[in-house]
Amino acid sequence: MDHAADAHRTDLMTITRFVLNEQSKYPESRGDFTILLNHIVLGCKFVCSSVNKAGLAKLIGLAGEINIQASTCSNECFGEEQKKLDVLSNEVFIKALVSSGRTCILVSEEDEDAIIVEPSKRGRYCVVFDPLDGSSNIDCGVSIGTIFGIYMVKDDHEPTLADVLQPGKQMVAAGYCMYGSSCTLVLSTGKGVNGFTLDPSLGEFILTHPDIRIPKKGKIYSVNEGNAKNWDGPTAKYVENCKFPKDGSPSKSLRYIGRKRKQLPFLQKVPPRVAAMGP
After folding, report:
1. Contact 150/171 with Cβ under 8 angstroms?
2. What pLDDT is stored for residue 13 in this prediction?
3. Could you tell me whether strands 122-133 and 103-108 are parallel, antiparallel, or unpaired per DSSP bridges?
4. pTM for the whole thing?
5. Is the N end or the C end of the chain the one with fewer CB atoms within 10 Å?
6. Looking at the domain covering 3-209, what would its CATH class be?
7. Could you tell me which residues come within 8 angstroms of residue 159 by beta carbon, excluding any fewer than 6 positions away?
8. Taking the domains of the chain in order of start, what are their residue ranges?
9. In 3D, which of 100, 93, 95 has the Cα closest to residue 146?
10. Beta strands in the chain (DSSP E)
């Protein structure tokens, strides 16, 4: 028996432990934010399980609906027909967020209107989210994921869409969960970015990538060159220099898969790999 390995596994930093440690730094905290994050984590676990068995459970395919992204955009926008997994994931996160008792308004990429939480279950947080970004790619085995952001409503009033229309700098937390060969949740509460990987044997997200950073200079750029005709001069010049550096340095490698969330792991500094963000 490898006692060293067993000892190591008894001191794992789970996401629950991590969030509670952060909460302890604020004696005045009532734990509302911690409860909300725990419900988001639960939603991620549920969706991860559904994604893993999507083919067997017949969750791959169209649901026969158009999401808000398509219904409000011109024909040139990247509108999407809803997949069965889109609908399921949306329901999962709405129920998880409402049942937390800590949200007052929800905005989903799948719904045309904001969801106002009933008074008896209402809290002081607003959550904006895309329950399943990239579901159109699941048939070909490409990773998909959930994106979310959290705002806080400071005043006690009837929630409206205006409560969500706050500057990004006022977010109290943001993150994404990627479902692929492993399930990875990346979270920031304003003081650094940390990555957690779901351990299937424990059913817990474990801290595996602490203090993620993007380097000042890297080796990868990500851009849809199909839109090159619409670029402004500086953007076109930058991409050209990535491919043909004038200083004689090695060309950067291109990584592009059509989903912002999927590209992030390539662009973040996740040791020992190094990457850099392009336009």
Report:
1. yes
2. 95
3. parallel
4. 0.79
5. N
6. alpha beta
7. 104, 105, 116, 117, 122, 126, 153
8. 3-209, 220-267
9. 93
10. 62-66, 81-83, 103-108, 115-116, 122-133, 144-152, 173-179, 183-188, 193-199, 204-209, 220-221, 253-254
